[in-house]
């Protein structure tokens, strides 16, 4: 059985566990949906009061908001094993169990838990993105749709890279590092707004050093037809994959080092 | 000829751990978190371990806690890489060829579950089938046999977390054997089990070795496990091999001794000990003696104690217990031997 087929098997097993108590599950989803919707409600109120902010309409902001939330929600459904790695695998010694199985550790951790809870964030992000598309003129759908999917793929790669980096760092600290949440939850917060609202240094940091802008702001500018460098903006989501590749190399090195130092 | 699948060769294995010493409490403790300020201590876990295990044998690895048993097991399982030394299992280097190596071994940790806590046992087996790429027909036959011999049928559809420890260990054994590995590594497989469960597990392991020719390496603290299973015993202490001998040799020498604890109603008598008896430090109203039954029979020794008791102001003999040496005693004897002949 190849890796992808095995991952689907893991996901099925995980889903059967999560849906064993459907009542509790639905309540959790509802709670999650309510909290994330509050976030957009606040933006809505802001724009209702001022109309536009630095030339951005509420419909345009909805596009940024929707895109980054979809990206992060999809990452959370598959990346939970990495998010919880320090606490659930290293501290408990369960990581040894993964090493005893003849499969790549990354595949096993991706399959650790296929979570349904982030679907609330996904649904909300998709709804707000649709709202934004209805309110805002964008480039023809033939460009917009593939571009959107490409941006989402790059965004999932980016956020997954962050979670894998967080897990690799926890080999040093044993615990999951809360500080990395600055990049995950903080990244989602930052990506919800057009980047030109931020200071120049922050924008550059978030585009070149940590390619969050490359998977959210830049591709959306291309979709809106507002990018000064349309070609570069179209290619930008590739940076998410490059970031993921670097984090995977870091992960491999950390696992090797762990085998030498013991636990 | 290619190397046999389960031949284990271990040569001059060395491993030490770097352990962070506990930082002081308070602001000074925070400074200790800086990488350069972190005080480290090196602990040698293995100081040159060498042995070879032939396919189809059962070997017991014994030693006190912290002796290096677990480190050996972890290295052989491909989890840990040693500092120096050579290891091959069926021609593969465990840590360097991990993915291929672990596909050919089964490992059971008595204190750690390999199964999925929330999944029914059978679902976990099916997942393992896919992880180890076991062909469906082989899997069906293998699973059916394991379910029968380990008596799993009654709880196959129960989540692992609901199983009793005895049931769980049987399920763990099955899980480690679904892919028919030629080598099975067991780390304290009977720990915490009740007597019937221990017997069942031992019988299963013995049959597995006899019928399938599976090579078995086990660690244990239970001398009965060793007696029931091991053809050969490797004693590890202080990161070294203290003894490596057939079980029969161990039985004839170290294990043949008995310990007698005699309690008296008051101060015990002073005895001139006959040949083959040695006195252990004991307190109050008891007397502890180690003796060799080949040189003095237990009834004779008891008679001696009965006669001595009650004379010259000492108390009469009240009770007698005879035990076999525990694994810790056996090991401490090896230590003494090791210390006296360096």
From TrEMBL, chain A:
InterPro entries: ABC-2_transporter-like. Pfam families: ABC2_membrane_6. Keywords: Membrane, Transmembrane, Transmembrane helix. The chain crosses the membrane at residues 21-47, 53-74, 148-169, 205-225, 231-251. The keyword 4Fe-4S does not apply. This is ABC transporter permease.
UniProtKB/TrEMBL annotation, chain B:
It comes from the Bacteria. The keyword Transmembrane does not apply. One of its GO terms (molecular function) is ATP binding. This is ATP-binding cassette domain-containing protein. The keyword Transport applies. InterPro entries: AAA+_ATPase, ABC_transporter-like_ATP-bd, ABC_transporter-like_CS, ABC_transporter_ATP-binding, P-loop_NTPase. Keywords: ATP-binding, Nucleotide-binding, Transport. Residues 8-263 form the ABC transporter domain.
